[in-house]
């Protein structure tokens, strides 16, 4: 029997199609742990492999793409990793039988949801080592690394495999149509690094359909002795009636086999949306086709401009301003109705009182208000204050978040406070759904990526945003040190300044200073004037993250009306002076759109500063 390398040299080898897509079509529900099927439904897995082999596949990928302990832990299966790997390899081998073919031990990237804590590289290495070692122990013919979007992670698994003695390593990148990775390399540059790291064959899978895959491969140079692979998707998915469907037909795949061979592809399979019929159509055409051994890259015309277009930079930097003087920002919610006159009146008064910036909440407490994006545009019309937009993950999926942020960037808005957001069911529209594709840390990472010029999928944006990224910190908790750890994670993700929940205790202000000063990041301490006893009781008992000392609440209980408000403002002034003695920034929160109270407090703090 010819060796695998012999076959890659002499013919166009056909791989299998999508394991998951075919299993779903056979009745497995989405969200099920596919890897577990090797234990609970071995006959079904054997059938899937056999159907692909009958269709003409020579490379059979094992059911182990996500058989890492991290992924399996979500199904409480991490202790069965070796059993799953062993059974998956056995099933693929049994299906192949005595026919010509090779078992590919499959390893995919370790995916984490945006709402989950990131996994550090040392932990990732340990997880990959366990899976790769198990596959090698089971005697797979090659290791097949698929659907990797991060070059550094793919290089890591190659290094692990080489150190464990594996010598046939297939490395596949999930590259989108632009042919550029999120780390900045072109596909050609990435392939070169993968070959240098020991990859036997490099290729693309999991991101593009037939035409886009061919288009990407046209720009790849192929030298003698190099092997190239492609596993295109069956087009883009359409979601209908609870299922995903793909439009690219088996005949369409068959018709394009020759074009893949012309680009030097010697291993051709299918990914998302492909089934045995697609593989059979390709195998029939491939029988009479030989791939090119060498080819130059196709040079596409590049249109140069005299100067790169940059996004407008309208706003001054809040961080630069902090280097010059104490900065006063005021939170002032947009109105709940279409009557915007009072809001604009308040904006003008707040600016006149000396505020440097105005922060605009994003339907805080899940209460419907005019879009803070629109409110920020109105703020620009009537003032020169810096608008700081709160962006919550609650109301927009990943697509919508990016679209809005890109729009903000093109309009020159720079200051964003990244928030997870209060659950929709807690607000005035309890029937609304909360999205939460991201949490605050995921949103911070997204903002940092946009600043580098890439979206969440790693696509080049042909420009960069210039966001100054803020994050929230809640000091009003018994788990203070845990909140500091969470803040450190936000800073590691890319946050550049901090805004806290309102603090109503001088000792807590000092504690916050002592804990946060070593982090070396600008901090704006929240300061909210209390209106009366009922206001204080509501905030203390019903608003998450706010705690008001009992002594203050008792003092307010003894007065009412304007006297209560004066007590509240006086108490806020004392707290404000303490804040300004320790921090260079202060964050005034306007209660119930009473901008006159924020104006009064600003005047008191400015007068004390001058004296």
From TrEMBL:
Its cofactor is FAD. Residues 1-286 form the Hcy-binding domain. Its EC number is 2.1.1.10. Pathway: One-carbon metabolism; tetrahydrofolate interconversion. It is an enzyme of class 2 (transferase). GO terms for biological process: methionine metabolic process; methylation; tetrahydrofolate interconversion. It comes from the Bacteria. GO terms for molecular function: helicase activity; methylenetetrahydrofolate reductase [NAD(P)H] activity; methyltransferase activity. SUPFAM superfamilies: FAD-linked oxidoreductase (SSF51730), Homocysteine S-methyltransferase (SSF82282). PROSITE patterns: HCY. Keywords: ATP-binding, FAD, Flavoprotein, Helicase, Hydrolase, Methyltransferase, Nucleotide-binding, Oxidoreductase, Transferase. It holds the Pfam family S-methyl_trans. InterPro entries: FAD-linked_oxidoreductase-like, HCY_dom, HCY_dom_sf, Mehydrof_redctse-like. This is DNA helicase RuvA.
């Amino acid at each position: 029997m010819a060796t695998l390398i012999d076959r890659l040299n002499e013919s166009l080898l056909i791989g299998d199609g999508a394991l998951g897509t075919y299993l779903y079509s056979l009745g497995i529900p989405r969200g099920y742990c596919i890897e577990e099927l090797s234990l609970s439904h071995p006959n079904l897995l054997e059938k899937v492999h056999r159907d692909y082999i009958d269709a003409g596949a020579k490379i059979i990928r094992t059911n182990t793409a996500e058989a890492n302990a991290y992924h399996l832990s979500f199904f409480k299966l991490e202790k069965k990793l070796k059993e799953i790997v062993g059974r998956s390899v056995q099933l693929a081998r049994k299906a192949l039988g005595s026919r010509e073919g090779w078992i590919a031990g499959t390893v995919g990237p370790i995916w984490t949801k945006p709402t989950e804590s990131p996994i550090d590289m040392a932990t990732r290495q340990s997880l990959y080592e366990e899976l790769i070692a198990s596959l090698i122990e089971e005697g797979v013919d090659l290791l097949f690394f698929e659907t990797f979007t991060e070059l550094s992670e793919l290089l890591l698994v190659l290094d692990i495999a080489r150190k464990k003695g594996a010598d046939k390593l297939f490395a596949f990148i999930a590259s989108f149509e632009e042919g550029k990775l999120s780390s900045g390399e072109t596909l050609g540059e990435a392939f070169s690094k993968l070959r240098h790291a020991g990859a036997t064959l490099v290729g693309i899978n999991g991101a593009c359909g037939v035409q886009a895959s061919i288009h990407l491969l046209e720009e790849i140079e192929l030298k003698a002795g190099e092997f190239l692979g492609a596993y295109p998707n069956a087009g883009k998915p359409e979601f209908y009636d609870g299922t995903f469907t793909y439009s690219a037909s088996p005949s369409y795949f068959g018709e394009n086999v020759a074009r893949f061979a012309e680009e030097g592809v010697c291993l051709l399979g299918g990914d998302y949306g492909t089934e045995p019929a697609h593989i059979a159509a390709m195998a029939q055409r491939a029988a009479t086709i030989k791939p090119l051994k060498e080819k130059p890259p196709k040079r596409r015309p590049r249109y140069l401009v005299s100067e790169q277009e940059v996004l407008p930079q309208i706003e001054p930097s809040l961080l630069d301003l902090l280097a010059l003087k104490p900065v006063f920002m005021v939170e002032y919610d947009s109105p709940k109705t279409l009557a915007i006159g009072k809001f604009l009146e308040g904006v003008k008064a707040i600016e006149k009182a000396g505020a440097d910036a105005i922060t605009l909440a994003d339907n805080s407490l899940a209460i419907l208000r005019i879009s803070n994006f629109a409110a920020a545009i109105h703020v620009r019309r009537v003032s020169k204050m810096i608008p700081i937009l709160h962006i919550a993950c609650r109301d927009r999926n990943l697509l919508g978040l990016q679209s809005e942020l890109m729009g903000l960037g093109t309009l020159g808005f720079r200051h964003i406070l990244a928030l997870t957001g209060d659950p929709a069911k807690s607000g005035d529209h309890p029937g609304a759904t909360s999205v939460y594709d991201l949490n605050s840390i995921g949103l911070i990472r997204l903002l940092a990526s946009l600043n580098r010029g890439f979206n969440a999928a790693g696509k080049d944006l042909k420009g960069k945003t210039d966001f100054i990224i803020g994050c929230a910190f809640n000091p009003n908790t018994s788990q203070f040190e845990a909140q500091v750890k969470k803040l450190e994670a936000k800073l590691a993700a890319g946050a550049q300044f901090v805004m806290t929940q309102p603090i109503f205790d001088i000792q807590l202000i000092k504690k916050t200073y002592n804990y946060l000063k070593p982090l070396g990041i600008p901090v704006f301490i929240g300061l909210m004037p209390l209106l009366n006893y009922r206001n204080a009781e509501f905030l203390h008992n019903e608003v998450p993250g706010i705690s008001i000392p009992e002594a203050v609440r008792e003092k307010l209980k003894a007065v009412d009306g304007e006297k209560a408000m004066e007590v509240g403002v006086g108490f806020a002034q004392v707290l404000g002076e303490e804040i300004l003695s320790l921090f260079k920034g202060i964050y005034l929160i306007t209660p119930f759109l009473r901008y006159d109270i924020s104006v009064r407090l600003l005047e008191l703090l400015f007068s004390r500063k001058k004296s």
